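Why does residue order matter? Because the sequence determines the fold. Keep that principle in mind as you read this record.
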Amino acid sequence: MALLAFAIPSGAHGEAPQDFYKNRQLRMIVGHAAGNDYDLAGRLLARHLAKHLPGEPAIVVQNLPGAASVAAANYLYVQAPRDGTVFGSFSRNLPSQALMGQANLEVDPRRFNFIGATSLPSRACVRWHTAPVKSPADLFTQELIVGGAGAGSSLSILPTLFNHVLGTRFRVIEGSCARRRSRSRMLPRCRRSTTTPRPPSSAS
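Structure:
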């Protein structure tokens, strides 16, 4: 799930929203690489969001990958203009990372204006059929090597959490899922499966 946020503006610009945004270009900072599911969701949102904003400004998507979207969150918090023209999409793990004091995170999530999310994810762990682990019970007696994408990603957080809380025996290979076109993409992984929100059914 991508969290969408604006940095809190430093001051009022003194214009009505429609006048301010008319003929302007907004930037949407996506904290993942082009083609990633966060990127695809962000681009889909950008395509339709403008018509719901006063003045219908143009929205341009800019990818700023790095450290499981921490780089994008830091940019939005520290460097981006605080005038309502830049907003970002980054990992839902950001608030918990800040709470745990992650060293490379410069963000205080309380200072963001969170405006929504683009998906409703669930969780699943998958492995190739030849892996020695055949059932959940096997995870407590046999090691299962899984691919990770960085300490701040769900691919790494979930198996680590399971190990510490439940006593499973996952071994995370960090960075293996961040390398595109790598054989390591065949490694088992624990990740989300995404469901895009839909409007309520009108059927009685």
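Helices lie at 17-21, 37-49, 70-78, 94-99, 154-166.
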